[in-house]
Amino acid sequence: MKIHFFGATKTVTGSCFLLEADGHQILVDCGFFQEYDKEYLNYEPFPFNPKKLNLVLLTHAHLDHSALIPKLIKEGLRCKILTTPATRDLLEIMLFDALKVQKNENHKQILYDEEHVYKALRQTSTLPYHNEFNFKGIRIKFFDAGHILGAATVEITVNSKKIIFSGDIGRTGYPILRDPEPPAEANYIVLESTYGNRLHKSLQESITELIQAIKDTFKKGGNVIIPSFAIGRTQDLLYILNRSAKQGLLEPMDVYLDSPLAEEATKIYISHPELFDDEALREMRNPKRRSIRFHFTKSVEESKKLNGIKSHAIIIAGSGMCQGGRVAYHLSHNINREECSIVFVGFQAKGTLGRKIVDGEKEISIFGKRLPVRARIYTIGGFSAHADRNELLKWLEAVKTKPEIFLIHGEQEVIESFKQSIEEKYGLTCHVPERLSIYELG
């Protein structure tokens, strides 16, 4: 057996791994590179032949895991794509949104068209958590990764050897979804490391900080702008804001969700209560009168009208790293106002506009215009849907065997720090793959 590493190596995005086993080629994920200095890789030919793939497994719907699947189709992919039912539902809206973004960025090459998206969806089959799919003697199971709706950890068993692809691992005790399920045993684990060198604030600390940021901003007469990922983070925020209002922690206020994609994703979340944790199910069954006034903007015209709101509004919009999307317009109207606040609740990759703001740049460029950063900037890490170092270590500790580890999905300094933590705590063999590296598995 061999594992080829084609993405997410010493970087966070571009998930793509190829397992060769028993003469078959199984691809796990095929997503966008989203770091500024890696985006060019999306436009290069695949370093493998899509026509020779026998199966594609998708861990979840985020674009850094899924968005190049239609490009596989364009280049001749004929095999089945397998994922969870909820991911299949989310995948449809995500892939069409990815195509829309490409068309809007008309200075770049469009990687695929609508027919490639439709064909990818037709070739996608579903496998619920814990069910087994037998592919010519290779056994495949999905387990709940707890990251976003339908996110999976993949277990592949080949001749009694278990290879685990963690996917993105979620938080313990986080809203809406159940906690992540670690594997009972494994021989090899390809493990995400996004926050492998740091600890998140507790969720309650983060909620308290968010509530205080909102109160302080409204007291100064400004708006709160929250760049947010359409799937996962937005639904968590809506849930938290609504629950906080029910608890009397927030006064009645207007919350604008300026993302048609996030609205569609929210509907899909609501359609899958079987994946919710007990607390979220109780909330659904107890629809107490809301104090939050939710507004969903669909058209560009409705979005532009929000620019006339100068105070006491929370505007949640994508993209989560401020790389285009409607949030860029809201930043352009609010970031130079000292009474406003920009609240970051998710990871900001190197080279993105969001990362520049978080890193303290005093002036930024939006739509070719230089704007001073006068708004107060908050970075609230406790809302991350990724496990932190201790949560990753606890997930790994649940594995009863002594697996060989391959660390991916992290910036280089983060991965090196996490590698040291694993080696010191568990004495496991850890590898830090380079892009295009190949590892032989015993």
Describe the structure.
There is one protein chain. The chain has helices spanning 63-66, 69-74, 85-104, 114-122, 203-220, 233-246, 260-270, 278-285, 300-305, 327-334, 353-358, 389-397, 412-426; strands at 2-5, 17-21, 24-28, 55-57, 81-83, 124-126, 132-135, 138-144, 152-158, 161-165, 188-192, 224-227, 253-258, 292-296, 313-317, 341-344, 363-366, 369-372, 376-379, 404-408, 430-431, 438-440. By secondary structure, it is α/β, with parallel strands linked by helices. It folds into 2 domains: 2-198 and 385-440, Ribonuclease Z/Hydroxyacylglutathione hydrolase-like (Metallo-beta-lactamase, Chain A), CATH 3.60.15; 203-383, Rossmann fold (3-Layer(aba) Sandwich). The strands form 4 sheets. A 7-stranded mixed β-sheet has the order 6-5-4-3-2-1-22. Strand 8 and strand 9 form a beta hairpin. The longest helix has 20 residues, at 85-104. It starts with a strand and ends with a strand.
